[in-house]
Amino acid sequence: MKKSKLVFIAGLGTMFESFDFYLFSLFAIQLNYAFFGSVNKHSVLWIFIIFAVGYLARISGALIFGYWGDKQGRVHSFKKTIVVMALSSMAIALIPSYQSIGLFAVVFLIALRFIQGISFGGEVSGATIVIVESYKKNQPILIMCIWLMATVGILLAQGTYTLLSTYMSHESFTQYGWRIAYIFGGLMIFHSYNARKNIAESDEFKNSIKRGEYKNTIKEMFSNYKVVLMLSVLTLTGTQLFWGCFMVYLPSFISLKYVNPDLTAHITAFILTGMIVGYIVGAVLANKTNIKSVFSIGTAWSLCFILPMYFAINSGSVVIVYAFCFMFALLQGVSGVLYLLLLTRRLPVRYRYTLLATAFAFSAFLFIGIPPFIFSYFTRESSMYIPMLVLGIGYFIQLIAVQLFYKKTAIEV
Fold first, then answer.
1. Which phi and psi (to 5°) does residue 94 adopt?
2. Helix, strand, coil tally for the chain in percent (to 5)
3. Is residue 412 in some structural domain?
4. Does the chain have fewer CB atoms within 10 Å around its N or its C terminus?
5. Cα separation, 73 vs 207, whole angstroms
């Protein structure tokens, strides 16, 4: 299969999974009406608790698909993640409302949201591994394409939400808008499954099978690779906290601080644009120099930018906030585009899928799923002090952890 086609197919699934997963937060208010009958502080809290369930489910998904990916093949697992996501997405669109079946509607939503999270637990890791094991040259550039397509998926979700809210009546949008969006996402994901049928296993994985290197990857991971797993998780600390702070929490905080709900979409757009530029810069530099060095420098610069970013948020100027969000996201993108590639190249082939997927899932749950709730509690006085302090600590931990991770793991493949 041609390099460009493989990258597109791998990235297509990641893009549509990002699209489908992000819809849940966009349609939070409409889901409140559908599954709780009204919007109040208690129902909103439950919706975001259900949102967090998806992050918890990623850990289960990482163990399941990581095990399959190491035992039966990357492509075998890679195909299943997309099918699970498509079916659960379309099933969510068909759940009867609270008015029709009562609490069973909420139970079905939680169950399907958990299933969605399971599928996402093996998707991005699988895409990264398939690319790394298939091509040895220009890996940073190829992985950059995966992350760019994932970002496009988020923008596509935002565009779908805007389009439906603009051209549907308020009543129709509240009742059916989210259902249309989920069906649309599910149908697109099925297209990605058909495209993945022709992906072949890499020679690297086939050779490891011939050498008989396979063992129970989950047992081995928790028995002999505990330190590697812990360092892998810590190497993702700052990057994942950035998503928890800036993609989940900051837009709503800014919107409330400046009493302008429209700022949420604007902030998100500036952050995503900055990350896209950072992805390109980081990938190009890493392709010409050294992945670890670029990752470490990007992390260090992000750490140095914490204090200026904090003062910018409290400056009272929307323009300054936009500019600094863009610059901070750019610095984050430099290291963010490399972190899964950095881990993948250092992990042993026969345990690679399980280790990478589990580390990514644990870090997402700990540093994206949980912090927004904590930040909400500690920032009642309209301050970003606690989130920025935590993010700064996260970058510091990440900077130290990557050095220790390199000392602990094998020579790059």
1. -105, 5
2. 85, 0, 15
3. no
4. N
5. 12
Distance CA 108, CA 273 (A): 36
**Dihedral over alpha carbons 143, 12, 333, 128 (to 10 degrees):** -30
Q: Are residues 191 and 232 in the same domain?
A: no
Distances (CA, A) of 168 to 160, 161, 177, 178, 401: 12, 11, 8, 11, 49
Main-chain phi, psi angles of 382, to 5 degrees? 60, 50
pTM across the whole model: 0.88
Single-letter amino acid, residue 35: F
What is the distance between the alpha carbons of residues 328 and 326, in angstroms, rounded to a whole number?
6
Q: Which residue has the tokens 């697109």?
A: 188
Round to whole Å and give the CA distance between 210 and 207: 5
Those residues whose C-beta lies under 8 Å from the C-beta of residue 260, and which sit 6 or more positions away, are: none
CB 282 within 8 A of CB 336: yes
Q: What is d(CA 116, CA 251) in angstroms, rounded to the nearest whole number?
A: 24
Burial (Cβ within 10 Å: 0-12, 13-18, ≥19) of residue 382: exposed
Query: Does residue 183 contact residue 90 with C-beta atoms inside 8 Å?
Result: yes
Question: Rounded distance, CA 86 to CA 217, Å?
Answer: 27
The backbone torsions φ and ψ at residue 137, rounded to the nearest 5 degrees and listed phi first, read -100, 150
CB 227 within 8 A of CB 404: no
| Tens digit of each residue's pLDDT (9 = 90 or more) over 40-99 | 555 556 766 777 788 889 999 999 989 888 888 887 787 778 788 888 888 988 999 888
Of 19, 39, 42, give the one whose Cα is nearest residue 30: 39
Burial class (CB within 10 angstroms; exposed 0-12, middle 13-18, buried 19+) of 40: exposed
Residue 413 lies in a domain: no
What pLDDT sits at residue 299?
Answer: 97
Among the listed residues 59, 55, 29, the one whose alpha carbon sits nearest the alpha carbon of residue 41: 29
**How far from chain centre, in Å, is Cα 64?**
18
Q: Domain boundary at 174, 199, 214, which?
A: 214
Residue 263 and residue 157 share a domain: no
Range of the domain at 2: 1-214
Q: Give residue 237's identity as a one-letter amino acid code.
A: T
Q: Are residues 167 and 190 in the same domain?
A: yes
Q: Find the distance separating the first CA and the last CA of the chain, reported in whole Å.
A: 22
Examine the fold and report which residue of 174, 190, 214 is the final residue of a domain before the chain moves on: 214
